[in-house]
Structure formats: structure tokens, C-alpha cells
Amino acid sequence: MQHAGRADMSARVFLTLGVLAPYWRLLTFSVIFVTDGVFTSDLFNGELPGRMMFADLIRAGQWPVWTSRMCSGYPLGGAPVDPLGLALFTLLPPAAALDLLLIVLLLIAAHGTYGLARRLGAERTGAVLAGLGFAGSGYIATQLAHLSIMSTIVWLPVGLILIDRVLTPGQKGRSFLLATLGLLFANQVLAGFPQAAYNCGLLYGSFALFRALSGRRELGPVKTWMTSLAGIAGALALGGLAGAVVLLPLQELAGVSDRAGALDYEWATYTNFWPPMIFSFFAPYIYGDASDLSFIGPPPFWEMYGYVGAATAILAVYGAAREWRRPPVAFLIVMTLTAFAFVLGSRTPVYYVAYLLIPGMARFRAPTRFMVLVIISPA
């Protein structure tokens, strides 16, 4: 047991070093992370100054509901209030807050994926590769410009671990696990990007239902596992309600924008995945890079860049072909194929069916945001 503990610690240390190596400058806590969108930056145009203004008002002892520093005045209701980001920007200078937030989010993504892979039966080496694959993926790298998206999706592996533990026969402390799941989902909603939280919620619900049905014999009577499912649904619902402090103001703001109400299908499927970009999963920048204007595909590049590395992708395909009979692997295969069909948007009829039948789908654009579900599985 002691040897296993040391081996696990060594694996996590190696994982930490591997994840932070490309971002070593952030460890100085004195640099501003510069995104390379060339013509624009959501980080600098909105998210970073918005978080700074919000934190400035808190430090000044004011309610952070309105700012006069934008146009003729602008409401701050609906701004991200995830506890980690809020605390860092309130307590630290902007550069240090941004650097530390990015470091913590990358580590959550990596170690959460490592823990999920281990729980699903992967060896330590495979779990380390999984953590590196997700945290170092092209999707994560390009979404670092969107702090709200990052503050939501990095918690996805942790949420799946909690659901799996709740639905494990003989598991003790289910009430604590459910409370933790509710707090985790509340944190995701409070991050201020409803679409990312919605996508995570779809996966949580699908995984919980699959896990309960596939393990119903071990879980005992129907009443037992149905109670656990109800607990998971309740935890997620309460977490979503806790995020109303962000969701309700966002809904009001959306009501006076061009995104009020349900979107027509053409607008909802804005940014479909360009099929040739599937090769970028294996080789980075095979069709160029948006940062130097060499990208030859349709924009935006950062919505479609799903690089995970040739070794990771090939091993994922090999593992799926070898272990597809195992229920967790079968679920990941179905999830990946479904998410990829969603990412293709209007290029296939699958997204149209989802647009019509799945509640909430018609309120969001950019099917490419489901890329995180495509990436996390092979990772």
C-alpha cells in the first residue's frame, strides 16, 4: 500500500511538471498571458477587464452591480463569480491573479483526468498520458482566452468521478458526495458561461443514467439505484439554482441582444467543425495557425482545434478497439461519436435532431463547443 502511494505521488508530480512546462512563465506570477487571435481577444476585450472591474468594486466596499467605465454605464450582473476566480482577482494584482488562475485550472484539468482514468481502470502511465492529453490539448490551449469556459470545463472529470462514486455499490458517504457534486456544478454555473455548464450537465446526466443501468445488478433493487439517480439529479438541480445569481442577469441582458430567445437553426449551427481538421487531432497546425494568419480553413480556428497528439489519439483508438466490451469504454466510445456528430453541426442531420428534441439546445450557437467531450474521451 505504501509503495502504491509513493508510485501514485510520483506519477502526479510528473504530471504536474509536464502540464506546467509549456507555461513556465506563468510561474513568475508577473506576466500577462497574451492570446494570439491576431485581430481580437475575448480575454482582453471582455473577460480580464470585466473581472478586474468587478474586483475593484469589491475592494472599494461597493456592490459590484454597475460600472461607469464602459460606454455610458454597464451592468455587471451576470459577471463570472466562480469562487476561485473571484477570490484571486480580489486579493491579488491582475497579473498574479490571472497567472495563478490559469495554473490552477490547468492542474485541475490534468489531475481530474488522471483520477478519472485511474477510476475507470487505467494504469498509472496511461492515466498520466490522459491527464497530459486533456490539459495539453489544442482545445484547452485555445480556450485559455476564455476564462469562463476554462473555469467550467476543467471540472468535468471531477464531476464524473463523483457520479461514479455515488453509483458504486457499498459506497459510504453518499450524502457528502452528492453535496460536493452540487457545489461543483454550482461553481461551474457561476463561472458565467451557461453553454459550457449545459454541455457538462448533459454529460453528467447521460453518464449517471448509463452507470446506473449498467451496474443495476450490483447496485441492488431498483429503488436503491433510482434513489441514487434522484440524488444526483437533485444535486445538479440545486447547483444550477445556485447559479441563478449569474443566469438571471445574463438572461435579461440576452433579452436585449440579437440572441434573445431560441436561435434559428442557421444561427445555432454557426461554427461547424471543418472535417479536414480531424487530422489536427494527430498533427498540430497541419492546416496552419490563426496566430500568423496561415490557417487555410474556415474561421474561427480556436473553435475547431482539437489537437491531442498522435500517440494519444492512436492509443485511444487501439484501447477502444481492444476494450469496447467493457461498459465504461463502451460509454466513452458512444459519447465521443455522439459529441463529434454534434461538433459537425449542420453537416449532418444529427445536430438538427438534437436541436429539435433536447431541451435547451436551441438556445446556444457554436456546436463546436462540444469539442471538449470529444477531447476528454481519447485523453
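Second entry:
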Amino acid sequence: MKRKNDNSKSIEAVPAEALFKQKTLTGNVDVRVDGSILSLTHLDKVYWPDDGYTKGDLLKYYFNVAEYNLPYLKDRPLILKRFPNGIAAQPFFQHDLENHPDFVETVALDMEVGHTVHYAVCNNLASLLYLANLGTIPQNPWMSRTDDVHKPDWIALDLDPKKTDFTVVCEVAVTIKALLDDLGLKAYPKTSGSSGIHIYIPIKRAYDFDQTVSFADMIATVISNENPQIATRERMPAKRKKGQVYVDHLQNSYGKSIAGPYSVREKPGAPVSAPLEWDEVEKAKISIRDFTIETMPKRLARIGDLFKAVLNGKQSLERATEKIKRRLH
């Protein structure tokens, strides 16, 4: 892990707590966050034109949920998807982060022969606000941490409906839960924040990405084989049958990422990737639009972090792998 050197600013800055208590944020403001000073710019720029939400609203949300959001970003390389002109304009992906302040950490990874990438790592509130100020709406962490990037902490299944009703997504999720229960594995659901559901299976850091992709592939195969009317492994939407949900296991590959818990998404309404209780999924009476930058802080204050078990769940895959192989034959 390395830090970029940065010349500290000797300027007056507004405490972040005071800034984000304001109802409306405008212009450019220098803020102090835990001893660091950063410049927040164009706070009144509209990022969600249909809803009127601004860049300032995005920053305020991340400030308010940071204690819940940061544990899922800590020590993980991030792939930045930047929307400097809001969701109606063309975004771009940024893997290599240069010329950043010293409170933002990076990790240098050799992604190809002769090509080193310096990925951003978000380990503190100042970094989170800095990245959001760049127009990084979703926070997309790797599934592994910087001390051993080849050993993931969890497996994630991405249920992608593509115009299929969300109740069917919930049905597929419950079917996956039943399979994982049979395999002796605990899993935790959250909305993708877009149109689907993510299911996380926390694991020991004893497996590489080839092993986790293989295990996720077996889950997707069993689910699609046994429930062909609602589940498929077909990636191409045009080739899917009507009503099928794609069980995407490929996001478990090395260097891939998905939107983390409590991440804002670049969709109308400013939805958030919201951890769920299985009871909510089973009842299928929820909507992606129930969880937004306005409603998520209130939900967190009421029920807390439903996903925290993911951070400490160290499950083994050996027995589950043997059981699912028998189910495939």
C-alpha cells in the first residue's frame, strides 16, 4: 500500500459535520474531515435530472452512511465509475488513480505483464467524499483485500432480470437460499440498486478466484437446471426465455467488482444497494425504489446494518462443494 504525497493546504475549512447539516449545498466548499482538508466542487450540479438530486445530495448521503458503508470498502481495490456530469451524461471507468491527496490510499497491482495499475482504496471518510466528489456515484469494491488480492472474502451471485418482474427475482433468490441452506451455507441478500438482487456468501480466505467462480457456476447451473422457467445461465438477454432471471456467477472473477452495500446507483430516483432480510425477499413486496438516498439513512437508523455478518462469516466450501457436485450428477 502506498500513499501519494500531497502539499497540505493552510486554509480555513468548514467542518464536514456543519456543512452536511445544511439543507441545500451550493458552489465550492473546502471541508475538514478528521484532520484532512478537501475541496468539494459544484455541489449544486444536478446529477439526477428527473429527480433534482445534486452532487451535494450524493456527498451528504455518503457522509451520513459512512459508518455503515466504509467497512465494505476498507482495504479493497475500487473500480471507479465516474459521472462528472450526472447520470444523463456518458460515464467513464477509472482503474488507475493518480494525482490524489495523501489521505487517499492506492494499491499497485500488476494486471498485465508490464502494466501496473494503482487502484484507489477507500479506508476513511475523507477518501469516500473525495471519490464521490470526482463523480463516482457507485462504490465498486473488489471481493478481495489488498493484503492478499487473490483470496476473496465472499462469493456474490448477481440476479439480473432484464425486464422480468422483480417478484420473479425474489423467487429465484429464495430458491438459491434453499439450495445454500441444503449445502450448509449462510447467505445474505441485498438489492443491486438497479433491477436485481445480489446474494453474498461469506467464506474463509482460503480459496482463490478460480475456486470461487467454479463454486458459483455450480450454484447457477443447479438453479437454472432445476428451475428453467425462472432462472438461466444465458448471458445474452435476447437469448433468454421470457420471465427468466440471469444468475450471473462471473462477477467472482479476479479483478471484477459489483456495487457494494449502501452504494448509490446511477439510476432514476437515486436508488441504493440495500441489504435485506430474507423475510422481505420471501414476501416479495419490496421494490428497488423503496431504498434511495433519502430513505436509506432512515432505514439504517431503524434496523441497523443487516449485512454485518458478511464481514465476519468465514465459511468453508469443501463439504458444500461435494454436496453440490452430487446434485449435479
